[in-house]
């Protein structure tokens, strides 16, 4: 988000972090923020009233606090009320901000429980499963299936195998907020890394990397980028020797296949 919406989101993120550091239950807060985002998306009149720049901030805070106060926990209600009193570039940005803050809350809860690394890994693995399994992808995107049925399917696949926060987010991914389930999971992973002030490196390799190899690679990248780096490793048989790394828009291709292709281009040229 840019402009006033970006500034408002940053303020809310700080407030959310303070609340969770002070003992608020991040999982409960996250669920509440998701619920509020859904209501605002489904009710355009409320969304416009809550973001009307001509209305006093206190009146907007009172409006949404009155609506959500009996349904959400006190921290989520406070965050939503504060959000309504801030400025947004568009009415839709309020719901989008609450959605992102819901993810942040669950990540912070996982971090407090020592499960944040596992959450990021679980989200990535489930995202790969969705991409690689057409039947699963179709089942989770089938408009004839209810959202509840899709959530039940997700839970049946991940229960006992993934971190609690990852299961919650995987269930959230079928809500239709994002264009596809895979895109939702990818976005959640990015928010998780940003929340923890880390970069994410997508690593493609012809064989699985041992734990020690992953740690050494992460350490090298952390020194290079001056930030911790989380590795998402994909075993790709098309990779011939070496590694192919992508961090944001930057691609580092150290594979033999890449060097052979480069040599061929030079010969042809």
Helical element count? 13
Order of helices and strands: HHHHHHHHHHHEHEEEH
* Total count of strands: 4
Helix content: 55-70%
Low confidence ranges:
none
Strand proportion = 5-15%
Structural domain count: 3
Distance between the termini: 44 Å
Strand order of the largest sheet: 2-1-3-4
Report the sheet with the most strands, covering strand number, pairing sense and barrel closure.
4 strands, mixed
Structural class: alpha+beta
Report what the structure shows.
This protein folds into three domains: 1-113; 114-196, no CATH class; 199-268, no CATH class. The protein has helices at 3-21, 26-42, 44-51, 57-68, 74-84, 91-112, 116-132, 134-141, 147-158, 164-172, 181-195, 211-225, 256-268; strands at 199-205, 229-235, 243-247, 250-253. The protein contains 13 helices and four strands. The model has no long low-confidence stretch (mean pLDDT 92). A hairpin with a 2-residue loop joins β3 (243-247) and β4. The chain is of the alpha+beta class and 269 residues long. Strands 2-1-3-4 form a four-stranded mixed β-sheet. The chain is globular.
